[in-house]
Structures are given as structure tokens and as C-alpha cells.
Design brief:
By secondary structure, this protein is of the alpha+beta class. The chain folds into two domains: 30 residues; 135 residues, Gyrase A, domain 2 (2-Layer Sandwich). It contains three helices and nine strands; from the N terminus they run αββββββαβββα. Strand 5 and strand 6 form a beta hairpin. The longest helix has 24 residues. The radius of gyration is 21 Å and the shape is elongated.
Length: 167
């Protein structure tokens, strides 16, 4: 065999090894995600199906904002009028601790500037993923959820239960 043949075989080996590494990275779904907010669309991390986007995205396994950064969680309905019909959008109103508010501002800055989204995970399950359209500077956040009202109430109870456990 000539040097060119060895070089070609070595190149093919490197290409196949790189593909194997990428495949193993994509199929990592064993990591447990603690309750909190995470950056979605990361190129590394755990591959998760995000129902609100109807597609699979990567989630960095480092919690960006832990659930304990939330001070208060309540269910809210916001009314909106479109034409002659009035509709209510239900979701969660989240009030953060001062430290949690700073972390949320940093998270929205990252998501806005890098065109990524943020996802809320509870008990290793994604609840909602949302796009950030502007930098947010406020202590209260309304997280609109496309879920039935009863499920939103259950979610509120689950978050408040986790907050009580952590205190």
C-alpha cells in the first residue's frame, strides 16, 4: 500500500469517527434536567422534543435559572379583543427574586442576541418553550401557555410545591 492509500484510509477513519461522535451527542437523552429555565437551540446538550415549537432542539444541561429563583407563581388570564370577539390567554405570572430577576434578564439578553429560545422544564419534562422578541427588564413575567386552564392550575401547584420544598 502506498502513502496515499494510508492517508485516504486515515481520512475516512476520521470522518466516520466524527460522525459517530455527533450521533452519540444527538441521542443523549439520559441527562436529568432539574426544574428551571434552560436555553434551547444550543448546539450541545440533550436532544428534546419541544411541543410548542413542534420540533426537536438541543438543551444545554446546565440550569440557566433554577426554579428557586421564582418568588411567586400564579395563574393569570389576560383578555384581548380581536375584531368583535374577545378572547382570554391563560398562563403563569412569575415573580422572581432579585437575583432571579437578574438571571432572567441575562437569559433574555442571550436568547435575544443569539436568536435562541428559553424553555421551562419541570420534573425533567419541558413545559413550554418561548422565543424572546426583546430584552426584558421587569420583575414579573407572563408566560402564555397553550394548555387547558385545569392543566395550567396543576402546573402552578407543582411549581409552588417545588418552591416550598426548596425553602
Amino acid at each position: 500500500m502506498t502513502i496515499k492509500t494510508y492517508a485516504l484510509l486515515f481520512l475516512l477513519f476520521l470522518v466516520s469517527a466524527t460522525g459517530i461522535c455527533q450521533q452519540s451527542q444527538e441521542t443523549d437523552t439520559t441527562s436529568h434536567l432539574k426544574s428551571g429555565f434552560y436555553i434551547l437551540n444550543d448546539s450541545v446538550g440533550v436532544k428534546v422534543f419541544v411541543p410548542s415549537f413542534n420540533k426537536t432542539q438541543y438543551v444545554n444541561t446546565k440550569t440557566l435559572i433554577p426554579i428557586t429563583a421564582i418568588k411567586k407563581c400564579s395563574t393569570v388570564g389576560i383578555g384581548a379583543t380581536f375584531g368583535n370577539t374577545g378572547e382570554k390567554q391563560f398562563g403563569l405570572n412569575l415573580t422572581f427574586t432579585p437575583n432571579g430577576d437578574i438571571k432572567m434578564q441575562i437569559a433574555t439578553d442571550i436568547a435575544f442576541e443569539e436568536r435562541k429560545s428559553i424553555g421551562l422544564f419541570i420534573d425533567n419534562k419541558i413545559i413550554n418553550g418561548f422565543y424572546v422578541n426583546s430584552k426584558i427588564r421587569n420583575g414579573n413575567y407572563f408566560l402564555a401557555l397553550n394548555l387547558p386552564f385545569a392543566e395550567i392550575k396543576k402546573l402552578e401547584k407543582k411549581i409552588n410545591t417545588e418552591l416550598k420544598k426548596k425553602k
